[in-house]
Amino acid sequence: MSRIKLLILLLINLILISCVSSQNKSNTKLSVAYIGGGYDGLMLTSQLKKHLNNFGMLDENSRMQIQANISHSNDLFVTNIDNTSDRERVSSSIELKIYDTKLKCYTYLYTNHLSQFYVLAAGDKFISNKTAIDKIKIENIDYFVKVFINNLSNDSLTCNA
């Protein structure tokens, strides 16, 4: 009886391992170009390299180079007529391009816009406002990178005329 249970467990493990190892295998190798923008550019570069490395798609010597622009903006967001709580909206926009350095052309373009808001704490001395903005920016960058990589694996990288 115990042999049968062990064989069943072994079979289940083999099936799970084969399913996991067959997903997201891409022979596309990409490099990441310098991304300006201070801290936001650094966070985007870090997230891109981390996720590309996890998928086995990062190669610093690749001819396919990711170029990016990211921007964030903040504005006051009023949610109701009574104005009982002030909220601040953080809007993020990104443009990611893949440039083929050998053929000297762009092969892929990804643009996206996302906004989130948080309840604004009254007063300038609360650190929670700055922490909320930083957290939202990091979440938006992470979302952009994940969607970019998921969309990228489905498309071929050919030069756009």
Architecture overview:
The protein has helices at residues 2-22, 39-54, 127-152; strands at residues 31-32, 64-78, 86-100, 105-119. Helix 2 crosses helix 3. 39% of the residues lie in helices and 29% in strands. The chain starts with a helix and ends in a 9-residue tail after the last helix. The protein has a single domain, classed as Double Stranded RNA Binding Domain. Mean pLDDT is 80; it is low at 21-25. The chain is built from three helices and four strands, in the order αβαβββα. Helix 2 (39-54) links the parallel strand 1 (31-32) and strand 2. A four-stranded mixed sheet has the order 1-2-3-4. The chain is α+β, with helices and mostly antiparallel strands and 161 residues long.
List its traits.
161 residues, alpha+beta, Double Stranded RNA Binding Domain, 4-stranded mixed β-sheet, flat
Q: Catalogue the unreliable spans.
A: 21-25
As for the number of domains, it is 1
The CATH homologous superfamily is named: Lipoprotein like domain
The biggest beta sheet is recorded as: 4 strands, mixed
In short:
With 161 residues, the protein is α+β, with helices and mostly antiparallel strands. The protein has helices spanning 2-22, 39-54, 127-152, and strands spanning 31-32, 64-78, 86-100, 105-119.
